[in-house]
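Morning. Coffee machine broken again, so started the prediction first thing and wrote up yesterday's gels while waiting. Chain of 276 residues, entered below exactly as on the submission form.
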Amino acid sequence: MKTGEDRTAENPKVPRLLSRRVKLVDEIIETLRQDIVTRRRSDGERLPTEKELSDRFGCGQSTIREAIRALETLGLVEVLHGNGSFVRSQGDFALASALQTFLQLQSVSVMEALQIRQVLGRQSIAMAAINATDRDIAEIAAICGSFERLGDVKDVDGVLAQVVSFQRAVSSAARSPLLQSLEAFLLALLHEVQVQSLGGRGIRFWRARAMAFQPHRLAILDGLRSKDPALASAAMDRYFDAQRTRFEQVKDLHALSLSDPRVINVIANMVRQFRT
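Came back before lunch.
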């Protein structure tokens, strides 16, 4: 019986044809990706049919389907079976998916992720102290005020949503889309892993945990109102010091890797939420 190597030796065109097809798929993916990211194709626009694209690129429709599937995985295209493929620019999902893969391949620990989140947060608050508008500050003040009514929140998800909304509002006030997207991913990641590690705790626990940080939130708000980056950064540092202490107090959380089987599905579900 002839092996695959024997058959390849007899027909050297096979690997060349395969290599040529792979190269063509990559070229199609890159061409369509550039069309989308440069806004030559707007969000929601229907892509040409498989037949039209195959005619354009001089290839079979199976090659086009492979390219479209890759773009769908990247979060740039949505395939509606029976209706066609549509541009759906999901930059946050693409970033979250890539970061998830990288962090898990590198077996990054939760504490490492927290450290990077804090580095970004320090940059974010310094920029927010300069760039925050009156509307930004009013929104952050309203979120801080909502913590005084935390007793009205009846579920853990609601409490955590308020915590995240404060942090995301501060990040947004920095007026840096890249920084905001990176922080949004790490915020979601750390909160999901934290909830997983502290599973079973009731609403009272999470309310108390959230309220313990209220003095820090108010100090951050004062720093933003003052337009003083040094004052705002000092308040954020105290917030982060308290946050790190809380993480270090949870033994399982402190030693956890993001590639740990216990959190892989948790993180995957979290990343999928960036599609919406």
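The chain has two domains: 4-89, 93-275. Going to sketch it on the whiteboard this afternoon.
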